[in-house]
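Sample entry follows:

:::
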Amino acid sequence: MRDIRQDKLVKLEPCEEKMTTAVDVYEEAENVNWRSDGEKGEHLWQRRLAMGQVMDYCCGLGIDVGCQANKIVPNGAAGGNCVGIDHDHRKVFMDPGSRWTCDMFGDGLNLGNPDSSIDWVFAGHVLEYQPFPVGTLKMLREFWRVVKNGGYIVLLMPHKRYYPNVGDPEANPAHQRDWLPEELLQFVNGNLYKELRIVQLESFYNKFEFDAVFRVVKDDDNGRTR
């Protein structure tokens, strides 16, 4: 795989209170079975590194959609509080003794939070499971609904250029659509240009994914943060 760091388009606008969990996360990575289902070691180390690229946006109260047992912000972290949800009902994903556990079962299409009640939503490898375009748009609109004006929607996505595409024998059979960073940006700009503003779009050289961070804009003050 070639180094795609040169493809980065980055405009950083992190929240004022910087997360202080990254060091703790990396120190624990060698010893923790993150997903509690046998996946650990180098693969999970790379996953935490990718999460570290967007952790500055996950300050205050947030939701990690599709977290399994690997929440982006663990319980007790400085600068943030995260509720982890997942549609998978395996008991291994809900461990009351873990800082990283799934807290409740559910999906990102019907979050139970009131409108504009949280600071951010994180969804790692979730959006590509939604039927395109209806499911994709429905999920992004649900994220927008629950996040406060000026808050963030933070996505990690498999990169179409480097991850097995739909129909490939090695692809995830549940994926509905493959994405390039510029395709996701074009889709959002074409359908949610009044609701979401891109602040970070970044491809990772060390893995097959990219991140996309959008700032939420509400009609009441045209996106000025409170």
